[in-house]
Amino acid sequence: DETDRWIPWSRQFMEPPADAMTSFVGRMGSSDFHLSSTKYNSFWHDVPMRPKEHASDPTIINLVTEIPMFMAAKMELNKDYPHNAIGQDINSDGTPRYYTYGSPFFNYGFISQTWEDPSVMSEEGHFGDNDPLDVIELGSGPLKMGSITPCRVIGSLELIDQGETDYKILCIALSDPDAHKIYSTNDLDHVKPGHTNKLKTWLKRYKTSSGKAENTLASEIPKTATEALSIITETHERWEMLCGKDGTHRANLPIQSETFWLDSPSCRGSSTP
After folding, report:
1. In this structure, are residues 136 and 171 in contact, taking their beta carbons and an 8 Å threshold?
2. Against a cut of 0.90, is the pTM above it?
3. 124 burial class (0-12, 13-18, 19+ CB within 10 angstroms)?
4. Burial per residue of 174-188, b for 16 or more beta-carbon CB atoms within 10 angstroms, e otherwise
5. What is the pLDDT of residues 156-191, one digit of tens each?
6. How far is residue 268's CA from residue 264's CA, in Å, rounded to a whole number?
7. Exposed, middle or buried, 132 (CB in 10 Å: 0-12/13-18/19+)?
8. What is the pLDDT of residues 65-84, one digit of tens each?
């Protein structure tokens, strides 16, 4: 019974720093916590990939925040849970997962309507990680969990995590005070010297505090915003396949997707084969 489990002071139950357009059940810090959107049926499938008010600018995407800046609890979209709610990742022993290397100095989330197909191999010979495309927002303050934030793409990093490709799209929230100065990772380092190197170090080392080996990057040089947009386009096309928009039947999808909840209006719904 998790209500009787001893929790260290650093992992105490707390009210989630949630966006006003969300609702949740359970207690944060326990496996029964799930946070859903009150506006969209699914964070993954129904939130538009790009905000309508910036439709003419392909560099602007919608960031769905899973982990606000400075929060140690490892939250993530649940691909199998009804309506793809956000919950806390679970360790192999069933306990809620926390970052132990240090709280992230960035906001972390994903781009809706994207999917890193595990059957697709990258140029470096690694397959997709079977998740929506990850996003790291490098602004100056925390965003709310479950918030949907217009964000300018400035580049990407390709993390190799346990042999899988795990792209990290880098962006700056349009609401950030420095957004008008930052259009690339070079701009980021001009405004915030050393920030890109600090991020690369964190990504490579954050699992070492749990006794695991360092992650690697496919390249120490971030991809440009243009290159990152190509990744977004490709993973959106794979999401369209996942949802049957190209006529693909669910039975023909990779076996790794067989437990996914895809019954939202913008995906397969209840009548799509």
Report:
1. yes
2. yes
3. exposed
4. bebeebeebbbbeeb
5. 999 998 788 899 999 999 999 999 999 999 999 999
6. 6
7. buried
8. 999 999 999 999 999 999 99
